[in-house]
Amino acid sequence: MKPIEEYVRSIPDFPEQGIIFRDVTSVLQDADGLHLAVDLMQGKLDGVEFDVIVGPESRGFIFGVPIAYNLHKPFIPIRKKGKLPCETVSIRYDLEYGTAELEVHRDAIKEGQKVVIIDDLIATGGTNEAMIKLVEGLGGEVVKTVFLMELSGLEGRKRLKGYDVESVIAYPGK
């Protein structure tokens, strides 16, 4: 099996000039790449005590669910506004170009539960910061966040200072 970095397709000048887009779909489209990505992300949880995994729509679902399944842990979806049927709590946050809103069921996370966040990418850290606020607002404790890829040039870790953040692949640029 080749290294995980070789499964990621890099597309120059997308979505704008000077940006290199790191395409996770090329990982997903290869059985070995998907298997390796899940295994490597799951390996970042060795020795971590936790109760539940949360992940954002949609790529957090892709990686979070198989890890939760493998470790026999519940998976809590964090969705875009208006997609969950029961009572929710929500958070509005800033994106690079505009704003977004995330929701989770009010009863999804119990007071004192230890939570791991799984997602495909950390860029500026805004989405992850919003998820942390949702989890903590419900009384959960975020014990770790794991990403497949990190765009370290965007310094997302700075927004997550004080949290245990790990990525499988770190790209130096944006």
UniProtKB/TrEMBL annotation:
One of the record's GO molecular function terms: AMP binding
GO cellular component: cytoplasm
Listed Gene3D superfamilies: 3.40.50.2020
Record pathway: Purine metabolism; AMP biosynthesis via salvage pathway; AMP from adenine: step 1/1
Main location: cytoplasm
Phosphoribosyltransferase domain segment(s): 37-165
Matching CDD domains: PRTases_typeI
Signal peptide interval: none
EC number: 2.4.2.7
Location of the protein in the cell: Cytoplasm
Assigned keywords, A-Z: Cytoplasm, Glycosyltransferase, Purine salvage, Transferase
Annotated catalysed reactions: AMP + diphosphate = 5-phospho-alpha-D-ribose 1-diphosphate + adenine
GO annotation, biological process: adenine salvage; AMP salvage; purine ribonucleoside salvage
Record family assignment: Belongs to the purine/pyrimidine phosphoribosyltransferase family.
HAMAP family for this protein: Aden_phosphoribosyltr
Subunit structure: Homodimer.
Function of the molecule: Catalyzes a salvage reaction resulting in the formation of AMP, that is energically less costly than de novo synthesis.
NCBIfam families according to UniProt: apt, PRK02304.1-2, PRK02304.1-3, PRK02304.1-5
Protein name (database record): Adenine phosphoribosyltransferase
Gene giving rise to this polypeptide: apt
